[in-house]
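Saturday, quiet lab. Running sequence design on the structure tokens for the scaffold JK sent over.
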């Protein structure tokens, strides 16, 4: 097992647990402060926790079957399959964000700005921390071919998507609180959805190419976990 794979597996597992913990905090805060925005963001984060957890499980499965002769071409397609699933989850999140934003435009609800801003700020800080954890394994100069790891890339994109939606949420909440621009909330939701969908499309395209044995140059060509 390579050092890069060790680092990627540990980092992804740690980020999955951190994301799950923040998800619980946001769901609790949404219920406690009667904020549907926070509650929705907490459940939105749960899908990221699930997808990142899937990436961590994929590493464990790849490690377990690394020397299994039944995998004639190695275990790299397990990685691609996990990335493919994560990309579909990201696309689902993007569609849900658009739906929620359109609903908010049509039937806006009062927002508890102070509480929502506080929790959203904490969520952004957590996302930045998780991005640094995965970034250490993702950066090409740090671990050679780790940046070509589709599984690691999918986890990294989920963290970036969470961070981006947190930034959009903070901009919308601050604008609404200071200037009464409540329309910013659904507008930023749609902007975030477009960004997430674009990331998901790129990941999905690369994963499909690996699954169909049409491998792009940037994908890791190592056939085994180790």
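Result came back. Writing it out in full:
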């Amino acid at each position: 097992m390579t050092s890069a794979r060790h680092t990627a597996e540990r980092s992804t597992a740690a980020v999955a647990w951190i994301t799950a913990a923040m998800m619980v905090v946001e769901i609790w805060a949404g219920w406690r402060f009667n904020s549907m925005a926070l509650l929705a963001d907490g459940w939105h984060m749960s899908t990221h926790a699930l997808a990142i957890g899937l990436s961590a499980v994929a590493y464990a499965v790849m490690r377990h079957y690394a020397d299994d002769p039944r995998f004639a071409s190695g275990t790299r397609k397990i990685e691609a399959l996990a990335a493919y699933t994560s990309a579909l989850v990201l696309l689902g999140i993007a569609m849900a964000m658009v739906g929620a934003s359109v609903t908010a435009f049509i039937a806006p609800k009062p927002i508890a700005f102070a509480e929502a801003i506080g929790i959203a700020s904490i969520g952004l800080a957590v996302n930045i921390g998780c991005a640094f954890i995965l970034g250490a394994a993702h950066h090409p100069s740090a671990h050679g071919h780790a940046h070509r790891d589709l599984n690691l890339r999918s986890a990294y994109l989920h963290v970036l998507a969470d961070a981006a939606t947190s930034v959009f949420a903070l901009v919308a909440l601050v604008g609404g609180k200071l200037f009464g621009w409540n329309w910013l909330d659904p507008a930023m939701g749609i902007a975030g959805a477009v960004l997430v969908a674009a990331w998901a499309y790129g990941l999905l395209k690369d994963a499909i190419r690996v699954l169909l044995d049409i491998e792009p140059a940037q994908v890791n060509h190592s056939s085994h976990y180790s």
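Notes for JK: The chain has one domain: 3-211. The helical segments are 3-32, 36-64, 76-106, 113-138, 140-143, 150-179, 184-211. Ask whether to fix the surface positions before the next round.
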